[in-house]
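Here is one chain, start to finish.
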Amino acid sequence: MTLRDKSLPAGDKDGEGRPAHVGFLLIPDFALLAYASAVEPLRAANRLSGRDLYHWSHVSIDGGPATASNGVSIRADHAVGTETRLDYVIVCAGGNPAIFQHPQTFAWLRHLARHRVRLGGVSGGPYILARANVLDGYRFTIHWEHAPAFLEDYPDLDLRRSLYEIDRDRLTSSGGTAPLDMMHAVIAREHGSELALAVSEWFLQTHVREGAGPQRMPLRERLGISHAPLLRVVGRMEQSLENPISREELARTANVSLRQLERLFRHHLGRSLGEHYLGLRLDRARDLLRQTSLSVLETALACGFASASHFSRGYRRRFGHPPRAEREKPVR
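Its structure:
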C-alpha cells in the first residue's frame, strides 16, 4: 500500500504522549456508513495496539443529537464553536450539502484552519469545507453524486474523482466504505503499516484500495454487458451531457453504422440510443435540481437541452412531475 501523501502530520508526535483527538462534525442528514467507516478504524487501532492512540468526540451544529439520513441519531459531545482541543475535525455530510446554511459552522471551520487543525470531510463533507473556504489550494475529492453540482458552484477548485485524497492538512474521502481506506493511510502514517494492516484485516478488507482508485464500478459491471464498442459509446455519452454528441459521431466511436448501433442498444440495453442518452441527461438534471440553486432553464442548458419547455416535457415523462416540483421533495 502506497500512502497518498507523506506530508500528513502524525497524530502523536508532539511529545505529549496523548491520544490524537478527532472531532466528527455531524451535519444533519449525514451519511451513517461513511461516518462509521471513518470512526471504526480508530477504535480498532486502539484495541489492536492495546493503547489509546485516538480519542474521538461528536460535534453538532447546536449541541443536540445529530440525525443521519436513515434516521439514526447520535448524541453530540459539543456544539460548533465549543472550545476544546482537537487535532482533527472530519465533516460528515450526506443528503444535499449544497443547501446547508449555517454561518457559525463555516466560521468555526475557518477558525480551526487558522489554528492548523487538520480538516477532513467524507461523502458530502468536502462540500461543507468548500463553503467554508478552507479547500482553496488543496486537492480533494467528494462523492460522485455530489460532483456535478459541486463543479457548478466551485469550478476553480481542485476536485479529483478519486476514492480519497490526503493533501497536507486536508483529508477527504468520497464516502461509502472509502473512509476505511483513507483511515488505513492515516494509521499507517502515524503508527506504522503493521497496525494499519491489522486494522484492515479486522474489518475483513481483503484489498486496501489506493486513494487514486475509481469511485464507480466499471461500465461493464454497472450495465451488465461486455460489448466493447457499445461500452465505448456509453462512456462518451456519460462524459458529454452538457454538449451531447451526435448520433453519427457515436456510431463512428463504435465503428459501426448508425442502424447497427441502434440494434446494439435495443439488444443489450432494451432501449434506443436516444432514449438512453436522454435518460442520462435527465438523471443529471435531477441531481442538479436537488443539489444546486440553478434555475430550471440553467439546469436544462447544463444538461444539453435547447429550451426549458423541451426539458420540462421530457422531465415529466421520466419522473412523473415537472422540474420545479423536484425541489419540493425531501431527499433521503
